[in-house]
Write a sequence for this structure.
């Protein structure tokens, strides 16, 4: 056989491998409104940058008809490529090949690409479209799923891990995306569930559709599994590319800085009158964020889950920061169980990957009530406290209005190693709001007064004047400066410049702390 013959054979084999499960199954994939594994990679990565690995590998199982279902590359496509010129590693499950099911060799491929990502120090992106472990392979496929979950865990905090669910993701395999840093889902085609509707109906008697059980909206709003939801796959891949622009390649690097196009000394007149004169009136914290960060560019994370807390990525003078803020427009910005978990997870990610934290505070407290207490607000609120206290990245805080009780403490206060803490003149820093404090402290005086209502109003006014302001806290050193709201942006930029490249003191030795999970 001549070299030309061998090259011809190679070309035919590569064409066969890239055909996946064949034209009929590709048509079925398209009929569902879904792209193929390779079409997704082409959309996600810079044009022409994909370098595929393990193109010719096939499964080794021969039972239950699998001997007749041999596909080059099996049910996953792996390799490396570029996004905005930066190296990434990717695996894309191929639903046209035996339903994208995870086999012994496909899990080996996925583990291989993650190992390479760690070795090189680059993000890994998983495109999930699979019915779960391959039933025909029995425990071997389960072992493969376990191997992938181990790699997800070992990679955590070392390289960014992104999961893009663009089809079903079922059974034990759902825990892979759950371990990764961010999960993207697409309306109408993405589903995640431990057991499908048939099993749910058989075990519990509940009637539920795939979408109601584990669709994108359910996981974005209720479970909190999904961090981002897209209308379609092209939009989803653009969101992935945008997110990566804020992140470093690994925990050994700083986030990538871009040339700033927004004046670092810019002041914002609209911030002066944003806080309502009525302390119980709502406003949108997003308006503050948009007006402070570079060019109003803020990528919110977990937008639809626990909206009383806002988290996401932005830039200040071209440098990425993580934003954590209350949302007074929803539940007055109170911290509940979901907000605690959402905030703790985000803070820990930023700390792991050297992204400074900027916190905007307007919080009336932790959510009261029987349901919250019995569901573990103490245990879950402690996660948020632990995350902020443990974080060693630069932490800058701005209190815009209310900062009451334990919720004041958790929000990157000086007591949890906040580095630089600012306050607007509108801030109220106290154990609780003036009305509640007066009702407790002066209950007897009010009851015995000839005019209880007038006495109550005067006491509330006196309490607010004495305690519900930032100056007591500033006199103790808990607030570094009370600032004009209009200069918030330049103040934050200068603070972060001061905190750059710290000389770390040696921490107490420990294997790891015991975060209150």
């Amino acid at each position: 056989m001549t070299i030309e013959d061998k090259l011809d054979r190679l070309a035919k084999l590569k064409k066969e491998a890239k055909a996946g499960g064949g034209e009929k199954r590709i048509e079925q994939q398209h009929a569902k409104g879904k792209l193929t594994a390779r079409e997704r990679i082409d959309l996600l990565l810079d044009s022409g940058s994909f370098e595929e690995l393990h193109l010719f590998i096939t499964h080794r199982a021969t039972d239950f008809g699998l001997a007749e279902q041999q596909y080059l590359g099996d049910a996953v496509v792996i390799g490396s490529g570029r996004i905005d010129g930066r190296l990434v590693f990717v695996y894309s499950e191929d639903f046209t090949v035996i339903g994208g099911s995870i086999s012994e060799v496909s899990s080996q491929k996925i583990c291989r690409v993650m190992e390479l990502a760690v070795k090189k120090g680059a993000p890994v992106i998983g495109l999930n479209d699979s019915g779960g472990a391959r039933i025909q392979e029995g425990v071997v496929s389960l072992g493969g799923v376990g191997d992938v979950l181990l790699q997800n865990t070992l990679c955590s905090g070392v390289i960014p891990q992104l999961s893009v669910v663009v089809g079903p993701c079922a059974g034990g395999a759902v825990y892979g995306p759950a371990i990764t840093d961010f999960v993207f889902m697409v309306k109408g085609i993405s589903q995640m569930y431990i057991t499908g509707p048939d099993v749910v109906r058989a075990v519990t008697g509940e009637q539920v559709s795939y979408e109601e059980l584990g669709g994108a909206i359910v996981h974005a709003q209720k479970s909190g599994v999904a961090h981002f939801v897209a209308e379609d796959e092209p939009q989803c891949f653009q969101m992935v590319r945008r997110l990566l622009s804020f992140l470093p390649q690994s925990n050994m690097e700083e986030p990538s800085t871009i040339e700033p196009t927004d004046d670092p000394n810019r002041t914002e007149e609209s911030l002066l009158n944003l806080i309502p004169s009525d302390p119980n009136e709502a406003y949108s914290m997003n308006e503050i964020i948009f007006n402070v960060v570079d060019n109003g560019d803020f990528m919110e994370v977990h937008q639809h889950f626990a909206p009383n807390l806002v988290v996401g990525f932005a830039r200040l003078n071209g440098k990425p920061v993580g934003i954590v803020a209350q949302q007074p427009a929803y539940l007055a910005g109170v911290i509940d169980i979901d907000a605690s978990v959402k905030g703790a997870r985000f803070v820990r990610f930023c700390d792991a990957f050297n992204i400074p934290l900027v916190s905007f505070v307007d919080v009336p407290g932790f959510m009261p009530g029987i349901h919250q207490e019995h569901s573990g607000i103490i245990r879950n609120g402690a996660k948020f406290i632990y995350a902020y206290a443990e974080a060693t990245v630069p932490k800058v805080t701005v209190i815009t209005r209310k900062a009451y009780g334990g919720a004041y403490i958790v929000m990157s206060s000086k007591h949890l190693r906040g580095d630089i803490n600012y306050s607007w003149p509108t801030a109220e820093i106290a154990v609780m709001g003036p009305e509640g404090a007066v009702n407790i402290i002066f209950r007897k005086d009010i009851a015995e007064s000839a005019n209880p209502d007038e006495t109550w109003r005067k006491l509330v006014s006196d309490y607010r004047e004495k305690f519900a302001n930032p100056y007591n806290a500033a006199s103790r050193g808990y607030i570094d400066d009370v600032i004009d709201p209009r200069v918030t942006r330049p103040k934050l930029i200068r603070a972060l410049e001061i905190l750059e490249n710290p000389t770390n003191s040696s921490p107490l030795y420990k294997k790891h702390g015991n975060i209150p999970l």
In short: The CA atoms of residues 139 and 348 lie 35 Å apart.
